[in-house]
Amino acid sequence: HWSAKEVLPVFGADVSSERVCIDRNRITGGGITAGIDLGLTVVAELAGREAAETIQLRLEYNPAPPFNAGSPETAPPAVLAVMEERIKTARQTRMALAREAAARMA
Fold this sequence. Notes:
mainly alpha; single chain
């Protein structure tokens, strides 16, 4: 989730804003709707692009969101402000827990 990306550097991870990221032997996805993108990418890596495109067509996966508010970079400022206020406590708690966990792992 975009609001949790800030804890990744605590564990030494590089942060990517890509929906799907291939890093050596790891493929990760970000965002709830990126799951299908991630799956299609894995299929393409393992079985080729045509196999992935065939699955995409079978699923009729042709995303066209009705709004362009799906990330902090594209959401209207007022919408982002509302969401940031709603999750402020959770973000603070998550960061504190991440720092504690990272300290135990060190």
